[in-house]
């Protein structure tokens, strides 16, 4: 699938062997890059867009509880709907804490706009 709407930059930003900026291979890769960028950006990290971000990196340091798990799930779902609602459809957001292993796992199932197939991304972060 070719990229739509002009040239896009890959995430993370990098320079290729030819000295030019690297672009994502297709629309699916671009949507995945945008999704990762949203989830891994902390709220208020962007000066001119302080409400942008999912804050997944900082979640591992939060106390594990059912209430917080619900808040995190809602925050991620709302962020994806607000910032990427035109690019993807969220099918599943699952947030799991493992106190014994001190890990946080976020599973996200989504479908890029115009695609019949779903994609799954999993994040796992340990506080150790």
Strand line-up across the major sheet: 1-2-3
In angstroms, what separates the terminal alpha carbons?
Answer: 40 Å
Second-tier CATH architecture: Roll
DSSP helix fraction:
25-40%
For the sheet with most strands, the description reads: 3 strands, antiparallel
Low-confidence stretches: none
Give the C-alpha Rg.
16 Å
Describe the structure.
This protein is α+β, with helices and mostly antiparallel strands and 128 residues long. It has a single domain, classed as Nuclear Transport Factor 2, Chain: A, CATH 3.10.450. 26% of the residues lie in helices and 23% in strands. The chain has a 3-stranded antiparallel beta sheet with strand order 1-2-3. Helix 1 (27-40) crosses helix 2 (66-84). The mean pLDDT is 80.
